[in-house]
Design brief:
Shape: elongated
Number of domains: 1
Radius of gyration: 19 Å
Distance between the termini: 28 Å
Number of strands: 2
Helix content: 55-70%
Largest sheet: 2 strands, antiparallel
Structural class: mainly alpha
Order of helices and strands: HHHHEEH
Number of helices: 5
Strand order of the largest sheet: 1-2
Length: about 140
Amino acid sequence: MKNSDKYKKLGEILTRKLRDENYKTYLERKKYAKSISIEEYRQIPRNPNYSEEFKKLDDERFEFLNSLNDKQLRTLDKLMLNLLDETAFNFLREIEENLEENESIGLTIEGEKVEKMTNELLSGSLFGEYFLWIEENSKYGKFQH
């Protein structure tokens, strides 16, 4: 069965927004943290308009990522993908399981309600389709358990 353009676009958008963009941000932070020493990092001038709370958070993240060895970083990579995948899966399941209730939220693609596309779902569920979408669309591999 050939899927509609709307179905394909939905999979691409959800994969990009719920997984790939967030994982890319993590990878960029990790790469930066491994590119310089803690001493070099501390010498970098700070934006005076940046709150002390956010500066402290940035410092903690940098120091944490900088301190990890390669094995720990590979484990953290998998954990980050797992968290993104579980969040997306749970979000999509919540939408689908509550489509008939007044308190639910819904999704539309090009003005069409996603629930009208259920006949195109190969897995039988919106949240199950996420596995297929990331396999087809993600730059970062399959679903992480």
